[in-house]
Design goal:
Layout (H helix, E strand, L loop, with lengths): L14 E3 L3 E4 L4 E4 L2 E3 L27 H4 L4 H17 L6 H10 L9 H38 L2 H9 L3 H20 L5
Antiparallel strand pairs: 1-4, 2-3
Helix pairs in contact: 2-3, 2-4
């Protein structure tokens, strides 16, 4: 047995090491180092619905599309968001094409920092659009229900109801009933 123990060298990775321990195996002594690797902070993809492949790219950055087109859509979006965030903050020092190429070649180095706010704004706009569409659908359903109710009323019931309403609302409801009645007459009936 030699006097010098065999020493295991730790690999040069992005790691944190605890205190090394000298372990005796009976025949030789080995330096044991427990390595805890730190995961890289990589941009997490936006929740992308199944089959959804649309990437939102501002017109100013449209020229980066061919550079990143081979990447998965969520990485494309993250790259565009980061470049757009840097552009908005005024810290984009070079042409966006160079940064897009860098991220396309090394997607693991992409960490959303400036792009976080761009992503949040897009998500807020998407939510506002959903709310607007829902409100529009509710207005349409309410209008259809009102029209249906107006059409079921007899002329006497309609006149009685209108006499209790302010003039502006009365005029609007009268117009709505007249339009629905004209549409109803022009629709061919199948008996």
């Amino acid at each position: 047995m030699s006097e010098n123990p065999n020493v295991v060298k730790p690999s040069a990775t992005n790691a944190m090491s605890e205190k090394p321990t000298l372990v005796s195996t009976g025949f030789e002594q080995v330096l044991s180092i427990q390595t805890i690797t730190r995961p890289r902070s990589v941009a997490t993809p936006v929740d992308v619905p199944e089959g959804h492949v649309e990437v939102s790219i501002p017109a100013e950055l449209e020229l980066v599309r061919p550079i990143i087109s081979h990447l998965p859509p969520h990485f494309q979006q993250d790259i565009v968001d980061e470049i757009e965030g840097k552009r908005r903050r005024g810290v984009l020092r070079a042409n966006p094409i160079g940064l897009a190429k860098h991220f396309a070649v090394n997607p693991g180095v992409l960490v959303l920092s400036d792009g976080i706010e761009v992503r949040r704004q897009r998500e807020r706009a998407r939510e506002a659009k959903k709310v607007e569409q829902l409100d529009e659908r509710r207005r349409k359903e309410d209008n259809e229900m009102l029209t249906s109710g107006l059409m079921r009323m007899t002329d006497q019931e309609f006149e009685s109801m209108c006499s209790k309403l302010p003039p502006r609302i009365r005029n609007r409801i009268t117009q709505q009933r007249a339009i629905a009645s004209a549409a109803d007459r022009s629709t061919p009936r199948i008996d």
